[in-house]
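Hi R.,

Here's the chain you asked about this morning:
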Amino acid sequence: MNTIKTTTTLKIMAALGGIALVSSILMFGTQASAASAQGHLKVTSKVQKMVVINKGGEKSYQFVPAKKVLPGEIIQYNTFFQNISNKPANNINIVNPIPKHTVYLPNSAQGKNTQTVFSVDGGKHYGKAGTLKVRGKDGKWHLAKPSDYTHIQWQYQGSLAPKAKQVVAFRVRLR
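And the predicted structure, written out as tokens:
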């Protein structure tokens, strides 16, 4: 099993020059990407924020490098993985934690040829959205909300051909 655990907050941000949380403002380094080699997979990550473009009264959305993110803004995390070997890669799982001070945006997890599952217990157990339960303050079990998610796992279906590259992504809102 090739489980790739990426750290979308601390380790990736540390590679970018650090993370600073001051007065609820999240500051990112200039280039929002980091790379690591995982066996015969090369993994890189990119962090972007969504901005609204208003041209002639028409709204559109664009993603730009996340240099500065304020509460309420949307951040997209992209994890690229490439088979750098000469053999097909099988049983690939990509795991991303939901960064602290953010909330996962429902239905934003994307990945071609993947099955996406979520965790509400720090990545110990995974299940499909709408099936996970959390214990409430009242002591009773309730269906988990996207704000309860702690991790996302993409299970790549099939083999990743030699030199082939794929991407998984998800969005969060800074609290």
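The chain has one domain: 2-174.

Let me know if you need anything else.
M.
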